[in-house]
């Protein structure tokens, strides 16, 4: 039986992640409060951000930038600005 969570991003009950995908306290918060669906949405945004900003994920500043965007997207409903991207109407 799939684990369910009340997804803070989608504001509904949904299938939870199978395991903690991100380290530390933020990872625990994501595991307990974010659904697979919302995480998949974030991964698409993350890819666009990495490509647009030409981020080198070996650099600590790039990882910090992405972590800030991830936290804001998942928990504060802040859509990352990606040049040329227009989010679909809700």
Provide a count of the helices: 3
Number of E-state strands: 2
Helix content: 40-55%
Task: Assign the structural class, choosing from mainly alpha, mainly beta, alpha/beta, alpha+beta, or little secondary structure.
Answer: mainly alpha
Order of helices and strands: EEHHH
Q: Tell me the major beta sheet.
A: 2 strands, antiparallel
* Average pLDDT, all residues: 92
Shape designation? globular
- What percent of residues are in strands? 5-15%
Give the low-confidence spans: none
What is the rounded Rg? 13 Å
Give an account of the 3D structure.
There is one protein chain. By secondary structure, the protein is mainly alpha-helical. The protein contains 3 helices and 2 strands. The protein has helices spanning 24-33, 36-53, 60-76, and strands at 4-7, 12-15. The protein has a two-stranded antiparallel ribbon with strand order 1-2. Helix 2 crosses helix 3. It starts with a strand and ends in a 14-residue tail after the last helix. The mean pLDDT is 92.
């Amino acid at each position: 039986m799939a684990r369910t969570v009340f997804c803070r991003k989608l504001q509904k009950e949904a299938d939870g992640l199978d395991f903690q995908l991100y380290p530390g306290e933020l990872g625990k918060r994501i595991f307990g409060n974010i659904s697979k669906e919302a995480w998949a949405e974030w991964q698409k945004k993350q890819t666009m951000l990495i490509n647009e900003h030409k981020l080198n994920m070996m650099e600590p500043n790039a990882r910090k930038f992405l972590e800030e965007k991830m936290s804001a997207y998942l928990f504060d409903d802040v859509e990352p600005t990606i040049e040329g991207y227009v989010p679909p109407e809700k």
